[in-house]
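Sequence in, structure out. Go.
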Amino acid sequence: MVLRMNFMKLPSLARVSGLVLVATTLTACKTTPRPGTLETRRGDEIVVAGQFVHTGTPVVLWLDPGGYDAYRVERRFSPLDQAGWSASHEEVKGLDSPNRYNLRRSGLTNEEIERVRGGGWDLATLQRVVDQFVIHFDVCGTSRQCFNILQDHRDLSVHFMLDLDGTIYQTLDLKERAWHATSSNSRSVGIEIANMGAYGPDEKNPFEEWYAKQPDGKTRITIPDRFGDGGERTKSFVGHPARPGPVAGTIQGRNLLQYDFTPEQYRALTRLTAALCKTLPKIKCDYPKDGEGKLIPGKLPDERLKNYAGVLGHFHVQTDKVDPGPAFQWENVIGGARRLLNGGMSEMADETSKGHMRER
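Output:
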């Protein structure tokens, strides 16, 4: 009571300042976490210039248990005492650099390069320099095997890998320049989707080993025994291509056959695409089309590629590539991503996403 009376005797400005101080202190007490408190994530975040961005689909970061870390120098799947750079360089002649990524420099001033090379990337700077999302198939079949090839056997990297069960793995912050698409590396984000690739009708292919027709007419993906369980995070997962038989199409003027990606992969990729187009708005939510609005099934002319901003395939960047292949459903992914950007998830899609998050 005495304190209250003394407070009321203060000049009005002092009373207001005191009330603000008390209110601020009480608010801080409620919102400031205690030192040592663990902060949990939902499990759908990607990392963009050090910031967490939600996607609405399961994501495993290089920071997480079971993640794939492209920042590491050593080989991931060799014995630990033989995994260091000296031994790796000696044993694997294809490894010429201990790092499989480097600094994005294109579009930056010398002053900006000096700032970001020490880790000083901010989202606004990254938004200015990244304008492409390049889609690949991995010809490895599973994301675990894909990382094995990239990290342990080749001087390559990619920001994301998308496994058969729809799990997305992020191996690097998007601020890094991954080595996946030659001339587009400095300006792009890349993803490798688990799929055994596309082949000419007379070419030897792995289809018989990887795909089996079931009595009900569906096709089941059969991971060969030498790959163990394949590393799928969804236990007892059995993958099925979105369409049962090989899909025929023409890429780079070549007639090709390819088994489709899984529905789980399409669902996850659609959400990731929407998240990237929202967070990095120079990536337009569209793919290369001709004058009739149809997919351009080959490399873009150099000048057009230079000026292109959006989602594209590896075959749009290089003449010697055909991924993501003739089976890839561009309108499924891009149309779905646009719907998410324009109106959010439908109630059914939202529940599907939540179910996948619970299974993680």
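Check: The CA atoms of residues 100 and 155 lie 5 Å apart. The longest strand covers residues 132-137.
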